[in-house]
Design a protein that fits this description.
Shape: globular
Order of helices and strands: EEEEEEEEE
Oligomer: single chain
Structural class: mainly beta
Low-confidence stretches: none
Helix content: under 10%
Number of helices: 0
Strand order of the largest sheet: 4-3-2-1-9-8-7-6-5
Largest sheet: 9 strands, antiparallel
């Protein structure tokens, strides 16, 4: 895979976080920094308090998280060609549905490690 020939790197992403529920849509500025080791298929975010396994590494991008659990869905991915990061968290419940969407543009930066220290 192409990612396996790359050194580890960071992605610095900025964009919008939208919260969609029963009321009006809330939009706020959003930023996140991913620390990514594509060979080890691991990543962490921001201050790197928790290292996670990457769900899928493909030529066209990385799916960081993908989970479907009953009434909830989580999907976070980065598209290499466009430099876009999309994060979707959805919960369906009798009390009302809630979706949190992250839409950001990312730039590759030097790797700062998979540890907070």
């Amino acid at each position: 895979m192409i990612w396996q020939t790359l050194a580890a790197f960071n992605l610095v992403c900025t964009g919008t976080l939208s919260t969609i529920g029963e009321g009006p849509i809330e939009r706020n500025p959003y930023s996140v920094e991913f620390r990514i080791d594509p060979v080890a298929e691991q990543f962490c975010m921001n201050s790197c308090l928790e290292v996670e396994a990457i769900h899928t590494v493909r030529v066209d991008g990385i799916t960081f998280r993908f989970r479907v659990n009953g009434t909830s869905k989580t999907r976070h991915f980065y598209q290499h060609e466009t430099g876009k990061y999309i994060g979707e968290d959805t919960r369906i419940s009798p009390d009302g549905n809630l979706s949190v969407l992250r839409d950001a543009t990312c730039k590759i930066a030097p790797f700062t490690g998979l540890s907070p220290f």
